[in-house]
């Protein structure tokens, strides 16, 4: 221990110091936990006990020594298996001191079967390799046949799993023949023999589905089903393969390569075999449905036959009916030819009557027009007479107002020769000016030589 530990521990106070046992044990426990890190320890299980609290108590030993172990419930519940008396295991533990008894013990955090670490690493490597190649691709897995004609089993003849599978198949589907392809399931070179049986089942074409199975065991016992040769044979199989190896918690490479994984051999037998009782029950149901359908069809056919029989008549009766029908049709045809003519005549009479009603009376209209013509003639004559009288009146008035009549009374009209205007004032009369004089019997052009204007108020 370093100087700081010695100063804080009562044991380092002096050679004559007296310490309680509990303090000593606690100091030893602290020193052990600091001095020994987590370590894997291998040995054989003995005196295994599972307490009511869920903690595990056991010893791990070899030929020369043993060590007490404790695995608390928080760790034990995650263990992949429960150790049994005599199992070869490896524990990952911390060296501690059980202070009340002063006993050295291992506080276990993980447990595995002996050699499981190396085998598990090999398992993971092979699984990753085959998965990368696509051997575990769900797309390549096939569905199991619903009604196989025969079932194949690849396992050992002495295996307990074979008896379980055969018992299950005999109970569920005794009508399906079973072919066993014997091969050892444990030992050296077992994987190649199992693969050879899978290939033989494919060559013979005598089964519709194949079960590869064995009972449970340690990882070493099941290692034959983790070999690459068997995985490739299962993946290349044309027959659907069901893997039923070990217990529900056991996983092998064969499980991933197979089309379907069953948790146990018995589960594999249940997956590939339809239950005979259910098949018979379904058959009875289908038979009853078919019988009911057939009965209903016969009833419909009988009803249809009765209906056809009622329609069936003798040829003479049929001819008589047709003759009667033809007579009815001829009567209808005759009446159909007369009726349009009668209706047309009625419509013509109605139209003629309406036309007669609205036909104009030419005699009366002619008389009316003659009377109007006479009235128009008389009116025009009266208007003409009025116009003639008016013209005569206006002519008389015009005659009275005519300039010629004024000139005939002794007057003269004097006009400027250039402008043609009448000369009205004496101031307009200038010597040398040319003028035109209009008299009752004609006109004359004159030129003034001497003008003596004189203003008067009239004649």
CATH class of the largest domain: Alpha Beta
What is the N-to-C order of secondary-structure elements (H for helix, E for strand)? HHEEEHEEHEHEHEHEHEHHHHHEEE
CATH architecture of the largest domain: 3-Layer(aba) Sandwich
- Helical region count? 13
Describe this structure in words.
The protein is α/β, with parallel strands linked by helices. It has 4 domains: 3-115, OB fold (Dihydrolipoamide Acetyltransferase, E2P) (Beta Barrel), CATH 2.40.50.140; 119-274, Rossmann fold (3-Layer(aba) Sandwich), CATH 3.40.50; 281-309; 406-447, no CATH class. Helix content is 47%, strand content 19%. The protein contains 13 helices and 13 strands. The strands form 3 sheets. The protein has a 5-stranded mixed beta barrel. Strands 7-6-8-9-10 form a 5-stranded parallel β-sheet, sandwiched between helices. The longest helix is centred in the C-terminal third of the chain and has 44 residues, at 315-358. The radius of gyration is 72 Å and the shape is elongated. The model is unreliable at 1-8 (pLDDT under 50).
């Amino acid at each position: 221990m370093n100087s700081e530990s010695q100063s804080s521990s009562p044991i380092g106070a002096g050679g004559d110091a007296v310490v309680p046992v509990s303090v000593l044990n606690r100091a030893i426990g602290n020193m052990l936990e600091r001095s020994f890190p987590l370590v894997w320890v291998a040995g054989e299980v003995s005196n295994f006990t599972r307490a009511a609290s869920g903690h595990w108590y056991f010893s791990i030993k070899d030929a020369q020594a043993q060590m007490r172990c404790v695995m608390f419930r928080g760790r034990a519940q995650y263990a992949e298996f429960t150790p049994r008396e005599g199992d070869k295991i490896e524990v990952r533990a911390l060296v501690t001191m059980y202070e009340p008894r002063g006993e050295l013990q291992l506080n276990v955090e993980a447990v595995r079967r002996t050699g499981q670490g190396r085998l598990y690493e090999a398992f993971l490597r092979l699984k990753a390799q085959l998965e990368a190649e696509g051997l575990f691709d769900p797309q390549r897995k096939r569905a199991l046949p619903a009604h196989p004609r025969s079932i194949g089993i690849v396992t050992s003849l002495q295996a307990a799993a074979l008896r379980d599978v055969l018992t299950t198949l005999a109970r569920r589907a005794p009508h399906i023949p079973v072919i066993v392809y014997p091969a050892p399931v444990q030992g050296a070179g077992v994987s190649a023999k199992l693969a050879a049986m899978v290939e033989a089942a494919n060559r013979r074409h005598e089964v519709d589905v194949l079960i590869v199975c064995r009972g449970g065991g340690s990882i070493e016992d099941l290692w034959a089903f983790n070999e690459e040769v068997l995985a490739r044979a299962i993946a290349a199989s044309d027959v659907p393969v069901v893997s039923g190896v070990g217990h529900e918690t056991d996983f092998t490479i064969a499980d991933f390569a197979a089309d379907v994984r069953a948790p146990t051999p018995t589960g594999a037998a249940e997956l590939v075999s339809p239950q005979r009782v259910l098949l018979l029950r379904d058959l009875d149901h289908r038979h009853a449905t078919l019988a009911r359908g057939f009965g209903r069809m016969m009833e419909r056919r009988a009803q249809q036959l009765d209906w056809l029989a009622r329609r069936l008549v003798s040829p003479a009766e049929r001819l008589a009916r047709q003759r009667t029908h033809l007579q009815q049709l001829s009567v209808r045809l005759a009446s159909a030819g007369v009726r349009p003519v009668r209706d047309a005549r009625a419509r013509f009479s109605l139209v003629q009557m309406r036309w007669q009603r609205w036909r104009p009376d030419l005699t009366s209209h002619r008389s009316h027009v003659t009377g109007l013509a006479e009235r128009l003639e008389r009116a025009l004559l009266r208007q003409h007479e009025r116009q003639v009288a008016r013209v005569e009146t206006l002519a008389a008035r015009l005659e009275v107002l005519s300039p010629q009549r004024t000139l005939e009374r002794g007057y003269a009209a004097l006009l400027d020769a250039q402008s043609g205007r009448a000369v009205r004032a004496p101031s307009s009369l200038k010597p040398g000016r040319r003028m035109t004089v209009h008299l009752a019997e004609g006109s004359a052009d004159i030129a003034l030589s001497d003008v003596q204007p004189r203003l008067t108020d009239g004649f």
